[in-house]
Amino acid sequence: MDPVEYFRNHLTPRHPVPTDTAPALRHFEGIKAVIFDIYGTMLVSGAGDIGVDASNARMLGAMKETLESFGSTVPPENALAEYFDLIDELHRKSDHEYPEIEIRTVWTALLERHGLSPDLASEACVIFECAANPVWPMPELEESLSAIKSSGKRLGIISNAQFYTPLLFPALFGKELPELGFDREAVIYSYQVGEGKPSRNLYQSMKEILNTKSISPAETLYIGNDMLKDIYPARAEGFNTVLFAGDQRSLRWHHGDDRLIGISPDAIITELNQIQQLIS
Predict the structure, then answer these.
(1) Domains in the chain: ranges and CATH
(2) 95-100 average pLDDT score
(3) Residue spans of beta strands (DSSP E) within the chain
(4) pTM for this one?
């Protein structure tokens, strides 16, 4: 299987669901870098994020589709329960406060448990993800990235992600991330470092990367759709923060979480093309 071709052939247009949040725009002086989240910010996410709840009917359908593609008759309900049990087990073994797993490890174990080849793990991940969390570019994404890049600012990513996440861009745009303007050195994926947002370690790592390019947190804008996973850690590390409130499925306020007491984004946007008003 070619994952890029699979995504290209199985993903279909999706549109953000407007929220009742009004934009709160302001101008940021001296911005040299703009760092993005992916799911729910750059990409419309059917699940609202890379992870979805075990009770989600789409997850069960995705498991059924994946197993059937390999000719397995294992009840999808059982396999889905095992899938989450394996994830929980790997999380418990991690030393990180916010552990992230490499999803192929889970699928390798699950396939072997039911007499299927572990060599199918990558393929299973792609089939499952495509069905469980279908994505599509947010409106004005490519145009906004082009405008930011043309203004001389660096583009980067901090995202909870898996190995297939960067493959979504050539599948949906016909371009790799560097062709869309991203600095390949300023890209941090949770699965590669073994921990996910809201860990501040990811943002500290980005600070170190940007420092080598003579860019400080005060000269950096971080854009994400989740107050806890995006705004909270980015703000703690000194980045300017922008909450993307453009899709009801992915906007996460986390009202009532004590970690967010006194925390608010520096700006709120509801469309990606509003970024230019913040930094031009």
Answers:
(1) 3-45+135-279 (3.40.50.1000), 57-132 (1.10.150)
(2) 96
(3) 33-36, 43-45, 135-137, 154-159, 182-189, 220-224, 240-244, 267-269
(4) 0.95
